[in-house]
Amino acid sequence: MKRSICQGGWFLFVAIGLAVMSVVTGHGADSATPKSPTMADLLKASKPGDWRQLDPENTLYMDLTAGRVIIELAPTFAPKHVANVKALAREHYYDGLAILRAQENYVVQWGDPEAEKPALARKIKTARPTLAPEFDRTWEDSLGFTRLPDGDVYAPEVGFASGFPIARDPKAGRTWLIHTYGMVGAGRDVALDSGGGAELYVCIGQAPRNLDRNVTLLGRVIQGMELLTTLPRGTAAMGFYERPEQRVPIKSLRVVADVPVAERIPLELLRTDTVLFQQLVESRRNRRDEWYHVPAGRIDISAVPLPVRPVGK
Amino acid sequence: MKRSICQGGWFLFVAIGLAVMSVVTGHGADSATPKSPTMADLLKASKPGDWRQLDPENTLYMDLTAGRVIIELAPTFAPKHVANVKALAREHYYDGLAILRAQENYVVQWGDPEAEKPALARKIKTARPTLAPEFDRTWEDSLGFTRLPDGDVYAPEVGFASGFPIARDPKAGRTWLIHTYGMVGAGRDVALDSGGGAELYVCIGQAPRNLDRNVTLLGRVIQGMELLTTLPRGTAAMGFYERPEQRVPIKSLRVVADVPVAERIPLELLRTDTVLFQQLVESRRNRRDEWYHVPAGRIDISAVPLPVRPVGK
Questions:
Q1: Nearest C-alpha of chain B: how many angstroms from A303?
Q2: pLDDT of B18 strictly over 80
Q3: Between residues 235 and 254 of chain A, which touch chain B (CB distance below 8 Å)?
Q4: Which residue has the higher pLDDT, B4 or A88?
Q5: CB B37 within 8 A of CB B285
């Protein structure tokens, strides 16, 4: 038999057309007892109400030559940045720009290669070139909070709200999106109000949690991460590509609501405010698959899978 | 000015020939005050005694068509597995085998594609096909321990010993290597003693800490990670490549002591048992670079950089 590491902890990016369950059925999944369901068992038993469909008005398609990257926006946490990124997309600001940077175990970033040359830089029409930061926001109970039980190195409390990984400081009454794998943010310069969405980045390695509350996060890649993580790393400082021909062109970046229905990819995401999701977290804290010798008994927020699948699968 | 995310938290994989400091001098590094040195400042001020040279007897070169991956072995924590991997390398077991699996945000794994077909599988001569696990070991004070101050979601204590990330349970008197980015382990099947090093994996994404104490770790990639992380992801279950031609051939995997001196790449690593290293951890807990608005004040073990550079640079 093949020596392997058991099935991945990550389920995030299910290829369309691939039966969703196949990704999580590796060694031992069949041997789980009814009393300790695996993630595969739980998803198999899920009801339609355990899932939520993507909102076309808050989803982006970034089309590269190699394929499509799908980003869910987080207007609850960064309303002005989300509105601005959509405005930029709708004025075709990003179309024809490029991925400029791929830094090992850190970020992939795209924008206008000529941003530093005003004469050549792309003009922004109706959108805002920069915005005040949205690093955190006021906590409100209406946000909902599925808190993780095992604490966090960086924040007083962590968990999920509206399907996004968040931290919460109950004393300060503040909450913020956190930098985990696949999270998307608005690059900025030294000035806190120098971002706004004209340059965007995605976390491609170990969660860079030191960036939390230092830069505005506004969404999360829910499909197509492998198109970004496998890009050649840039060899200039901070992983920027040295030569223009190394940059990766962006064919288009569109709000899904503007894409003809026939061209859309209908996806649904597991809700994070359900009993089923809590069971899934518990099942990942204590892996009972036959392969496991010692269940961790704990889980870091960056290790919690957020399942995505084609609608109705 | 270019909107960016400040310089990466990762310094691990310094290209040979690249001035080591260039990697960490991005925005704001120049503005650090003398009272709060950046990592670049600290490395610039380091003394020769702050570094240790790789031991050729405990370093591997894995040569791919695309370049060289360098692995430091950890005989202190997995003595039998390290000895067996070296024995396998010395009987040329790995030469001509292939990378078989690349799973998004999880692992890259290599071994014998025909391992499941006894008639075709490569014969192991002097080495052992399998070994008893070395998931953890007895704690001894002689191991040394640079403990991190901010705790850990998974283990009672975490820090560094012999340059490797470890966990420690003082009550149980046990210690173990942990799964962070770049760590190398011996794949196994369901049976705990089915590993041994004939199939090896590297962690390429968010630290899969749920694997700790479930599989034997035996080393860490210290250069060439980008050759593994940028590989196309496999589309079969668990990220295995579906077709033989998708596999990535291994030209050779050698113990550096067996490589002619002229062909070696002399590297040194920052020691983790020094005052300088503690200062580096502190500097990464509280980033004072001009770009940072809120220093995290804390650090996860998976985010601590372990600098590597050409000898004498």
A1: 7
A2: no
A3: 235, 237-239
A4: A88
A5: no
- Collect all residues with Cβ–Cβ distance below 8 Å to B245 and sequence separation of at least 6: none
DSSP string, chain B: ---BPPSPS--S-PPTTS-GGGGG--TTGGG--TTS--HHHHHHT--GGGEEE--GGGEEEEEETTEEEEEEE-TTT-HHHHHHHHHHHHTTSSTT-EEEEE-TTSEEEEE-TTTT-TTTSPPP-SS-S-----S-EE--GGG--EE-TT--SSSSEEEEETTEEEEEETTTTEEEE---TTEEEE-B-SSGGG-SSSSEEEE-SS--GGGTTTSEEEEEEEE-HHHHHTSPPP-SGGGB-SSGGGSEEEEEEEEGGGS-GGG---EEEE-SSSHHHHHHHHHHHS--STT-SS--S---GGG----EEETT-
- What domains sit in chain A, N to C, each tagged with a CATH number? 20-53+269-310 (no CATH), 56-263 (2.40.100.10)
The pLDDT of residue A3 is 58
Q: What is the 3-state secondary structure (H, E, C) of B125-150?
A: CCCCCCCCCCCCEECCHHHCCEECCC
Give me the mean pLDDT over the B45-49 stretch: 97
- pLDDT higher than 50, residue A88: yes
B106: nearest CB among A9, A27, A298: A9
Chain A hits for B215, Cβ within 8 Å: 5
pLDDT more than 70, % of chain A: 88
Interface pTM (ipTM) of the complex?
Answer: 0.90
Please work out, in degrees rounded to the nearest 5, the angle formed at the alpha carbon of residue B237 by the alpha carbons of B236 and B238: 115
